[in-house]
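Quick one, probably user error.
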């Protein structure tokens, strides 16, 4: 099967397109219509030129992907997504911690865990413990005042739904947020962690099954099996080290504004644009 090079950005200079055409050995350039940003398909590109293409795109701040020619979004039946820093722009636990005056401490642990430097379940335990005694009402304030969708999130979801693709939200965050986003956005399935609350206060613990890296992969595989979907019909989008197993369980993995360890393993990296760059990858 031939491969196309997809190049995307808010604005793509003609000299960059010509340079990438030459670098990739492509046989033609065609504009991809229907996107809010600029996107071009360079036909019959040589995937062996990835390193040279990546270097040029990094310098020019362009998103790129080598995609099988003729691959359609409708070829997928399930898209699994992380929540924090993927579907939404914040890390919810960091914003909750801001109400205790411990945001910097919690955020440092979050960042280290997302880079894969420390054990994720242990990092969650440490961070949640720092929330002990916080009033439960803070969760609603974070949702109302600070939670914002990532650019292009609704465009991606609309494109998926119009093609009958099921949406799965799997998060190392908390059910308070995933359940609200599930209802708000019409997401089909959602799994995350439940904060324990007693007498209106956070206890500093989570209860129930942990939604860690293994659980994220398990949920993707279990939902796919229930829908009679193969690995080739699954896509996963994430940004942190705890997304790697889920992403490995899908045929197409997309690192969204992700940590280096995730970008190194993903099929595609989106570093500059929003989630609406995903539909433009396909014919």
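Nope, works fine. Designed sequence:
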């Amino acid at each position: 099967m031939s491969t196309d090079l997809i190049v995307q950005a808010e604005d793509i200079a003609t000299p960059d397109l010509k340079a990438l055409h030459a670098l990739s050995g492509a046989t033609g350039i065609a504009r991809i219509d229907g996107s809010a940003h600029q996107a071009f398909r360079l036909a019959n590109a040589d995937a062996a030129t990835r390193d040279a293409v990546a270097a040029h795109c990094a310098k020019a701040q362009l998103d790129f992907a080598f995609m099988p020619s003729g691959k359609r979004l409708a070829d997928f039946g399930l898209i699994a997504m992380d929540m924090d820093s993927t579907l939404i722009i914040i890390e919810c636990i960091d914003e909750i911690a801001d109400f205790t005056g411990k945001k910097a401490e919690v955020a440092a642990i979050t960042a280290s865990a997302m880079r894969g430097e420390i054990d994720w379940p242990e990092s969650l335990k440490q961070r949640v413990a720092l929330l002990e005694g916080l009033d439960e009402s803070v969760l609603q304030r974070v949702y109302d005042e600070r939670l914002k969708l990532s650019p292009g999130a609704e465009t991606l979801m609309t494109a998926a739904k119009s093609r009958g693709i099921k949406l799965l939200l799997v998060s190392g965050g908390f059910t308070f947020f995933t359940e609200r986003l599930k209802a708000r956005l019409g997401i089909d399935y959602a799994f995350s962690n439940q904060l324990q609350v007693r007498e209106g206060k956070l206890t500093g613990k989570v209860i129930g099954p942990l939604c860690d890296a293994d659980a994220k992969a398990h949920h993707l595989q279990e939902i796919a099996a229930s829908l009679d979907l193969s690995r080739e019909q699954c896509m996963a989008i994430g940004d942190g080290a705890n997304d790697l197993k889920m992403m490995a369980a899908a045929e197409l993995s997309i690192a969204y504004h992700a940590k280096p360890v995730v970008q190194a393993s993903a099929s595609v990296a989106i570093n500059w644009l929003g989630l609406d760059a995903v539909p433009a990858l396909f014919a």
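The CA atoms of residues 59 and 240 lie 23 Å apart.
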